[in-house]
Amino acid sequence: MYAQLVETGSKHIRSLDEMAPEERAFQQRVDEGIKIEAKDWMPEGYRKTLIRQISQHAHSEIVGQLPEGNWVTRAPSLKRKSILLAKIQDEAGHGLYLYSAAETLGVSRDELLGGLHSGKAKYSSIFNYPTLSWADMGAIGWLVDGSAIINQVPLCRCSYGPYARAMVRVCKEESFHARQGYDIMLALCNGTPQQKQMAQDALNRWWWPSLMMFGPSDAESVNSAQSAAWRIKLFSNDELRQKMVDQTVPQAQFLGLTVPDPDLKLNEETQHYEFGEIDWTEFNNILKGNGPCNRDRLRTRVKAYDDGEWFRDALVAHADKQESSKAQTQLAA
Ligand code: BYC
């Protein structure tokens, strides 16, 4: 599949003949499915693309804690609260694995966080929507984590070793997240008519933003062709989006909910669902920082970072003290 993506991409992707020997050897390793490791030679563009994608991914995990964090104190039971807390903590862990994977490419944590806090670096559009009811916790787990799994399972096989390995654990945890989300939806749909209506309302608000998570259409995606050639991307944005729709519509039907798309229909021949046009103006607005919660999300992250300064200073002071007492012990011996 990725060869097809490379060919259809708008950018010119250089053939092996057009490459310098070092780059050709690199590309051949990638083509053979050999993992690239941190200390291997790599083209500067490959390094930059990975830093961009992995750091955006890390920022998404960290900012992604905020919409769900909004409901920790209002979870309907102790059990639901513990599950939600565990999920949010997992997202923090995912952010940390991913920042570590990005650091292997020669960028510092401070630089990465600086990009997020200045608004220069992107994070997933999905986290710029508000969480208005408890049903949103169900919709996020089911649709957002569900989409994340579809996008991230292929990343476990991507060409960069540290990213691929980080993804293995992330995907295992995402499966639990998607299950807990669907379980919330199931409970609401089997509840009172008002609870079922809450679930429908959450689906109505999260459906289209979840489809946008996969990025612009293949025709508009600027990075896909090169990322496919480097085997960072194994499937196109549209292919993964289609997979999400095909997988999720039957789940919505099982819940007795209606997907908010009048154009949605199963193509009997292909056995794929055809769906309506995504509102790309809304997507592009969010990418420009003008979504419903963009400013609030950034403000919250910057404040959390500033408030944690004393703690980071204490950790560094403690580490310095440990180092100097170790050195003194060695001198005395
Ligand atoms: N939101 O050429 P394209 C999670 C940007 S975490 C914002 O197709 P690419 C979770 C794109 O960056 C979910 N920006 O780019 C966490 C590019 O801009 P730049 C995060 C988007 O990189 C907590 C431009 O649009 N997952 O699930 O080939 C709780 C053109 O796009 C978006 C990942 O990060 C978007 N939705 O493909 C619960 C997965 N889409 O950078 C759940 C790893 C596109 O050129 N990332 N853009 O200025 C990827 O797979 C790819 O980076 C993307 C985009 C498919 C997202």
UniProtKB/TrEMBL annotation:
Q: Write down the Gene3D superfamilies for this protein, in alphabetical order.
A: 1.20.1260.10
What the entry lists under InterPro entries is as follows:
Aromatic_CoA_ox/epox, Ferritin-like, Ferritin-like_SF, PaaA, PaaA_PaaC
Organism's domain of life? Bacteria
Coiled-coil intervals, chain numbering = none
Question: What PANTHER family has UniProt attached to this entry?
Answer: 1,2-PHENYLACETYL-COA EPOXIDASE, SUBUNIT A, PHENYLACETIC ACID DEGRADATION PROTEIN PAA
Q: What is this protein called?
A: 1,2-phenylacetyl-CoA epoxidase subunit PaaA
